[in-house]
Amino acid sequence: MNENNIISNNHTMNEEINKKNSNLSEGLNLKTTENHNKLNSNINKEEVVYSDYITTIKSDNISPFCLCPKSRIYLKSNDCKIGVAILALSIIIITNIFQNVFIHKKITPKTLKIIMIILHNLDTLITIYFFFDVSTTSPGYQEIKEIINFEEFEKIKPFIIVNKETIYLKFCQTCKIIRKPRTFHCKYCNKCVLRQDHHCDFVNNCIGRNNYIKFIIFLLNVFIYCLLTLIINILFFCGIGLNFSEFNSNEIVCCCFNFINLFLAIFFGAQMLFFLISHFEYMCNNTTTRETIKKNINEETLNKGCKNNCNIACNKDYVEDLDIKYDEVINNINNRYNNNN
Q: What's the rounded Cα separation, in Å, for the pair 176 and 159?
């Protein structure tokens, strides 16, 4: 009897423990499901709030840039490039204001001070003007004309021959056009740019056939701005001397900002000089940054002599041999396509 009682008691104890465990597991499951629902609801709310950002990222093949991971706020890379352009313009304006307020008054003699003030401010205005001019001028886009689709293009595989070089034309599947030989598709502008050099982050625009010479003038003015800033900073230190022990707190702060200004002038001035030398070389050889990297056309085919090459770069309406041959091929394709239909 005692053994039976002990066995029955053990059974009842096990049943109670199982009930408690089941209740605990149900409670945990309820909590986890509630937490999951809360998380899902929060995510849904965030997706509703920031649906514009999320849908644009999914629709466009552009890598997003996360401003705040917790808040799930994203910007497209185009917006980041706008930020770079604003930063570049802000550096020019802020450094100019700083020099007008603190630096120019320390330059001696007075005649030299007046000359430097006029030159520096005049170049600042010209630089800002060309910044907006390059930013807002269209680089020149190839017109979208749907002649044939990609499958028909692959069957034909059109090409042109210039100076005994065979150049195969390429089909842009985004714009649905047969690209001109010196035309490249820009993933940021989402268009095919005529004689594209590169997409410049500092002006947030493509550099192509229509705004290339304006871009060269902009680079030249930025270099002159950095050079004038460097000269003004040197004259500033010559005017106040370098005996820091005799400086008051305002002069020490001014010197610290001046050292930063000096560093920026040397850093950006060296870059602008490198870019200017590179682009003058490209202009004299009738080539671009993109063509130099890709090497899709031989330099001998493009080179028309230094004078003619500079004329091509400066004149956006100049028609090259490549364009004439391209038009002939496109006309033949049009005629063939119209006759078949």
A: 17
- Rounded Cα–Cα distance for residues 331 and 21 (Å): 82
Mean pLDDT of 21-37: 48
Q: Tell whether 47 and 127 lie within a shared domain.
A: no
- Which neighbouring-strand residues pair with 165? 162
| Pair 121, 9 in one domain | no
Average pLDDT over residues 138-166: 83
- Residue 186: strand pairing partners: 191
Candidates 87, 94, 200; CA nearest to 137 is 200
What letter represents residue 298's amino acid? Answer: N
Parent domain of 24? 2-76
pLDDT score, position 275: 94
Q: Last residue of a domain, which of 27, 43, 76? A: 76
List, for residues 170-202, the tens digit of each pLDDT value.
998 888 888 999 999 998 888 999 999 999 988
| 160 falls within a domain | no
| Torsion-angle region of 204 (φ positive above 0: left; ψ -120 to 50: alpha; else: beta) | left
Confidence (pTM) = 0.72
Residues 269 and 136 in one domain: yes
CA-to-CA distance for 134 and 202, rounded, in angstroms? Answer: 10
Closest C-alpha to 89, from 192, 266, 225: 225
CA dihedral defined by 63, 66, 69, 72, rounded to 10 degrees? -80
d(CA 66, CA 27): 38
pLDDT score of 42:
43
Higher pLDDT: 46 or 136? It is 136
What are the pLDDT digits (tens) for 83-119? 788 888 888 898 888 888 877 777 778 888 889 889 9
Instruction: Mark whether 217 and 250 lie in a shared domain.
Output: yes
